[in-house]
Each structure stands twice: as structure tokens, then as C-alpha cells.
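Q: For a teaching session next week I want to show students how multiple molecules come together into a single three-dimensional assembly. I've collected the sequence lines for a complex. Could you give me the predicted C-alpha cells for the whole thing so I can convert them for display?
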Amino acid sequence: MQEFLQQVVNGLTIGSIYALVALGYTMVYGILKLINFAHGELFMIGSFLAFTLIVSANLMEHIPHPVAGLVAVFLLVALMVAVIGLILERVAYRPLRRSSRLAPLVSALGASIFLQNAIMLVYGGGYLVFPENLVPNIEWSVGGINIGLMRVIILALSISLMLFLYLLVQKTRLGAAMRACSLDHDTARLMGINVDRIIALVFVIGPALGAIAGIMVGMYYRQINFTMGWAYGLRAFTAAILGGIGNIPGAMVGGLLLGILETIGAGYVAAAWKDVVAFIILILILILRPTGLLGERVAEKV
Amino acid sequence: MLKKLLVVMVAAALVVAAAGCAGGGKSDTIKIGVQGPISGDWALEGQGFVKAVTMLAEQINAKGGLLGKKIEIVQGDDKGDPKEASLVAQKMVSSKVIAVLGAYNSSATEPAAGIYNEAKILHITPSSTATKLTEKGYKMFFRTCFLDNRQGMFAADFIVNTLGKKKVALIHDNTTYAKGLADWTEKFLKEKGATVVFNDAITPKEKDFTSTLTKIKGLDPEVIYFTGYFSEGGLLLRQARELGIKAVFMAGDANNNPDFVKNAGLEAAKGAIITTLPLPQDLPYKEAKQFIADYKAKYGKEPESIWTLTMADAFRVVVEAIEKTKSTDPVKLAEYLHTQLKDFPGITGPITFDEKGDRLGSVHTAYVVNEKGEFVLYKKQ
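A: Of course. Below is the structure for the complete assembly, covering every listed component.
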């Protein structure tokens, strides 16, 4: 039982990262019906920019309090990646908005390859290692379950960000506008909503969340390289589908569930089988509920 | 007309070349070939080969040579490339060497070995460890390096006899190399009466191994031995400590990299043990100390790597065989190496060959990470 609970905690840590990244996929899909394949790369760029700020620019040294330093790193990186997300939308997707659905998809793949190679050229192809002790090495053992401070931060920060996003979308006028856009662009425009603005907003929030996930991966595992966006991107995309793509709580549930399924697959079957276990369950869920766990039934537009 | 002229010129060139060869054969020297990547990606290693052998040959020539003849070194640059390696081998055969030492990498050694075996030339590689090389029944082929499985033999012996532990978890990453090492270690551990509670793979390129480690924690091993690469090794070690696993952490030679310590963090890395080939200066043998001192005096720096030393041993073994058999017939030399040579005091330890031409024993050793995060030789408390 103790081991099982430990595995659940392990799974929640990985899963909350998946969930944060999955939100970026699902929000863009919800509004544009586009799968933003470059999103995994934005996540990766987040960890590289954090590395630059912490190691190369020595930002932490210039800020008196370590917690304030970390907050500054998170905010600055989220802001920079949000700007990259905006530019991406402006350059790679907006010009193609009126073309076939396949064109932006190809453009997204192209953007992904471009960003990956750009990072490789700037930072090199090897691993970069984050410094130790960004977060004090505190560990707790509760009833035989071990958990370190960084994992607590990952869990707490992702869950609060998800809650914040949920409230933003469900309870504010801006959120109502976003939901309207995801239903129908033209009707939303008739209601006086600036659709381009809302799309831009989605390309700010998604990348910023992805970047924060990227920083946390960098700080916790401390080892980053330019291909890491692909592996996390793929899992997060799967998580988004598992929960029902286009559905924000779905991405959260999907991410956490995928994380737990993976760890249980690895812990009770074998590490080599963890993806098999996770994906068999994904297939089963999609057979039983083709729109994903929380996906809504959409009336056919005629 | 032009064609005729060309034919005449080529013919003339051939005659000159042949004369050159014949002249070389008649001269009073013993020719030994050195083949390796003297240029290209591994140039440092290839140049180390040449330097080691040149130095030893000069030492012998200064004392009057072998059987009254001087030793002449013939260099062949194969750039580590299999195609170049067969060209070099053919060149070596036509320049009438009695033995060739090299090549560096297994894929260059493989085509050359066939050619030398056919031409009845003694062939010793100092560094190609692929198992299949000695599986072809070549009578003229030897190696002064050790097969891939010897690290497993060493690790098992170290765990049971040096650490005195009996309950081991093995983690690999499903690459041929790492899985091979894990499986060999398991086999040798069981022979020594230890129990292997876990032997399974993690997925390389991933970052989170907590699920596998949680499973291992439940099995409560005394030692965890990871046979994969440093990029995962450091992460595994730190996550193991975070989960409260107290077992001794050991890792294979692919973790012999400063990034292993950086990834794990100093706190977790301290006390981790790496099984690997020793640095030249850490070899305990007096032949090694002598060779390294001579090498530094002549070239002004340490030997390039352990392979410079196994190359020197390859040369010294040939010299020993010539002295003992009083012959330069490669077939006789090979037979001597197969049957007569026992525990020859090599720079890298005692040398004995088995019937396949593989070297018995192992030269691996254990390093431990100290408080400063450096790898230092493991010493039993």
C-alpha cells in the first residue's frame, strides 16, 4: 500500500507537468481547431531561457532574496516565451487562418523543427545541467512516502495555475469571450468580441504555462537538452486527447491520469511496458468515449 | 600513341615499386606494422599508438635490436574507417611485415583481421573489444584489451568480495552494451552466490525514473548497479536518494564523466562507485610506472589513454615471442602466444591468451566519488 501511494505521488508529479503542457494544446485546439505541434518546443525553450537567466546572466545573484529570485525567473521566462508564442501565431498561423486545415498543421511542424534547431545552434547539442540547490534539498517522509520540496512546488504551482486558469475561463468576461470563440468565430465577432485578440491571448497563456512547466522540469531534473520538448509534447498531447481535446479541465485530468498510469505501468509491469499500458488505456477510453473523458458532444454543424 | 605511353609508364612504375619492395625485404630489419586512426576523429588514439611503439622500438634498437636485427616500424593510417582499414592491411601485407598491431576500433579491425589471417601475419589489436572478432577462428589474431564481459566479471567480484554485499538490483537501458553488461554481471553474481532481485531497463532520454526506483525500494537491495550512460545515471542516483533508498550506488564505465556528478548533485553523488578502465597513472604495476615515466620524458605528457598502454603491451608481447622462439616466423610466434605465454608481466597487468586469442583476466577497477565530486581510486576501508 505504501509503495502504491508512493507511485501515485510519483505519477502526480510527472502528470502535473503533462497537464500544464497539455493545457497549451487544448486551448489552441479549442479555439482554432489546430494542433500546435510547436508547443512542446515552447516548453523546451522555457527551460533553456531559465538556464540562461540563472547560469549565464546570474540573475539570482542580483536579487537579494532567493525566493524573489526564483519568482523573477519564472515571471521573466513566462513573459519571454509568451512573446515567442505571440510571434509564432503572427508569423506561422495567422497568415494561414483562411486556408485549408492542413496548411497550419504543416506550418506548426515546420515551426517545431525550426525552434528545435535554433536552440541547438545557440546552446549546442549536448546536455545542460542546472545548478544544485536552487531549491533547498529538503525531503519529507510521511508514512513511508518520500517527497522532496521541489516536487511539492511542482504539484502546488501546477495545481494553482490550473485552478487560476479554470476560474479565468469559467468566471470572467474574458473567459466567456474565449468560450464564445471556441464555439463559433463568426457569431462571436457579431457579439462584439475581437476574435484576433482572444486568439492572441490564447497564444500568450498557453506558452506561458508551458514555459513554467519547462522551468520546473529544468529545476527538478536539472538536465535539459534541445530534444526534450518532443517527448513531453507527445505525452502532453496524448493527455489532452485522453481528457478530451479542447476541454480545459479535461487536459488537467488527462495529464494527471496519464502520469499515474505511466508510473503504475512502470512500477507493476516493467519500465519498458509503461507506454504500452498507458496507451492501451488511452485506446480503450477513446473506443468507449471517442471525445475523451470530459470531451463534450458537439452537435454536427450542417 | 598516348595510350601506349601510359601503359609503358605504368609498367615502369610497377617495376620500380616492386624493386622497392624487394629491396625492403632483403634489408636486415624486423618489420612491425602499426595500424590505427592516425588522422580523423580518433587521431589522438592513433598517434598514441605510434608514439608508444616508436618509443619501445627505439629502446630495443639502442640495446642492439632483436636477434641481432633492428626493428622497423611501418605506419598505416586507417582513419578508423573499415574501407581504409582493408587498404592499409593490403599495403602492410605487401611491405612484408611480420606482425601488425591495431586497429583502434572494432569495425576497422574486423576487415583487416581477415586479410592478415589469410597472409599469415601476426595481428594484435590493443583496443577492439567486440566479442565477434575472436569468434571467427583466426589463428593469427589476438587482443591485449579485454572483452566487454570482463567489466561484469569485475563488478560482480567487487560487489561480493570487496563490498561484501549479496543482494543486488541491476538497471540497464536496453542498449546492446548496457543490457550485455547487466546480464554478464547477473551471471557472474549468481556464480558467486549473490542474489539479483531486479534486472530491468529504464527508458533512455527520459528524466523521471521514480516509478522504477520505487519498485526497487520495495525489493530492498544492498547495491544498485546501473550499466547505462551518465545522462541517466546521475538522474537515477539523485532520485534514488530522494526516495530514501540507502543502497550503495554503482555505475558502469559509461558514467565515468563529470556530468554524472553534476546531474546527481554533490550531495547524492558522494560515495557513488564507478567500475571502469583505470587511468594510466592509476595502474599498480611497476612496468606501468616505468612506461609512463619514459613516455613523459620523451613526449612531455601523459599517455593519451589506456589504449596507448595496451598497444605498448601488444608490442612487448611480440618482442617476447620473438626472443623466446628465436624466430620471426609469424606462425610460430602465434603458436607461442597461444600455448606458451603465461602471465607475461604487462604494463596493464599479467597477460595470458586463451585458444581464441582473447586475453584472460580483467584490468577494470573501481573509482569512488569523493567530497569534492572527483573520481578517486576506491580503497577498501
